[in-house]
Each structure stands twice: as C-alpha cells, then as structure tokens.
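Exercise: predict the fold of this chain.
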Amino acid sequence: MAEIFTATLEEAPLTGEEIAQWLSTNKKRDSHIPLNRESRELFGFTMYGVDGFVGWGGSSASRRAFSVAVERDDFMFFFEQSSYCQLATGNIRHIVSPGSAVLTTADRYSGIEIGEKSIGEGFTISRKSVMAALAGTFECFAPANFEFKPEHSLTEGAMPKLLTLMQFFRDEICTNHTLEASPIALASFQETLSLLMVQNLPHSLFNRKPVARSIAPKQIKRAIEFARTHAGAPITIADMAAAADVSVRALQLNFRHFFDETPMAYLRRLRLEGARSDIRDAPPNATIAEIAGRWGFTHLGRFSLQYREAFGILPSVDLRRERRK
C-alpha cells in the first residue's frame, strides 16, 4: 500500500515570513521568499500526496507575493476559485482567474502573486508518468523543448474532465485519513491522467499524428493474456502494450476495432470479475470495502454501480447470498 501524506497550515493571521517558513519546512525541495509587507492577515494551506501525485489548496485574505524555487521538473496545474493569482515562469506572467487554469513545469515556476480573497488549488503529476504516456501515444521521445500550452479554459476540451479526476482523487482518497490508497487505483489514476493530458491538451507534438497501425491478432491475444494473468497487480495499459510489443496508442485503437471497448475498460472488467470472485469466496469477517480496495475500486458507490451493471446484483447482496449457503 502506498502511503498518503498530508500537511495543513490552519487558517490564521500570518506574516509572509511565517508562511514561507512553513512552506519551506513542509515542501522540503522548494523554497519561498516573501516579497511584500509583513502585516498579519489570514492565510491557510493544505497539501497532500501519494506516489508522485501531489495536490494543494489555499486561501489568503490579502495579497501575497513570493519568489519560488523548486528542485524538480514535474508538471503543475494551478486553478483559482474566487479572486486571482499570477504565476511567474521566468520572464512570463500568467493570470489564473475563476474558469481558467495554468499548466507549467516546476522548474519554470519562479514566483506567485496571490490575490486578495484568493481561494486556489493545484496539482502536480510526475514528468516520468507524462513522458511514458507521450512515448506510448506518439512512439517517440519528447524533444528537448517539449512543453504544454500553458493557459487553458476549464469549460473546454479535456480540462473539465482532468479537474474532476484530480478533485475526485483528492476528495475520495487523500482527505480520508483512514483509507490507504490501493496500488492498482494509483497506477490507473496516474496513467489515465497522463494519457488525458498528452492525447487531449495542446503541446509541442500535438499536431503530429499518432501512429495508427493495425496489429496482429496474436498481439491482441498477448495483451489479453497478460491482463488476465496480472489483473490483481497494479499494471497499466502501458504494461499491456509492452507485453504485446506495440504502442499504447496502437493497443487502444485496435481494442476499439476488435472489441468496441478500451483496454482500460477491459482491465476494469477483469478486476470486477476478480472482486466478485473474492466476494463470493469471502471469509465471515471480510468487507466489501476491503475487497473493492484490493482490486483498485476506492469509491464504494461507484463500485456498487459498476458491479450491478456487470452482474445484475449489488455486491452486498452477493456477499449475503453466498454467506447464506
């Protein structure tokens, strides 16, 4: 099980120096230097993360400005719910206001101005995960100058779905301190988010047409056999593609052609079948939540819905029925 970490700076009247000290202590690879006056105003901040994915949220009653240095090169999303924030990426300034988002890399991020009455949030996803999705889609390594378009609308394209996915991960996993994240759920989440980014958000290779070649039935069979053998492990679509010796994009396209479903949907179906088998063989003290989590289903309501759609019965009913036998 991957360990979730959280850190909270409770909202309180704080100076910029106190905020910077807390941030630098808890974000050990970052440094923040306050750039404006030291009056005490309300400020609060929370961050959480697990296995390469980090999220944060904060509020500020007054304008704040910080110089920032980050010792990593991951991708960072910034959102604003109420007022505005202004990001510095070198000599370029990006305004984030309600309904918009900025996507940059941590090594470019050099400063932030937080507006009065700002309520903001953001997410970081590892470059390694995104680059793997890029290579699997376009069958090439990213050029040295690869970058995403920095400014996005939250009402167009893939951004609404990306934000919903990130907020779900935060609300259903990271803020629940009693829940450990499933390795299967984490692997699926990171790959899904990364593929959504590289296949839908404008970037340096976006106008390059992904390779769309047919693959042999035996390659599809190898991918299926690998998925069936390892469905209970934190494998990804990239792992299935590697087992078949094809690209992620080729596997996606040919799964749709042969089976009218995505590899992810197929893998989820296998995991539902695995969860059902465990439910029907469950010992007396087993719970639905425990079994679902083991198979990568972290939202019980959604798991129950998918289970009923697949098998025509709720998991709780299936469990009770098997225990009566």
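Check your answer against the key: The longest strand covers residues 5-14.
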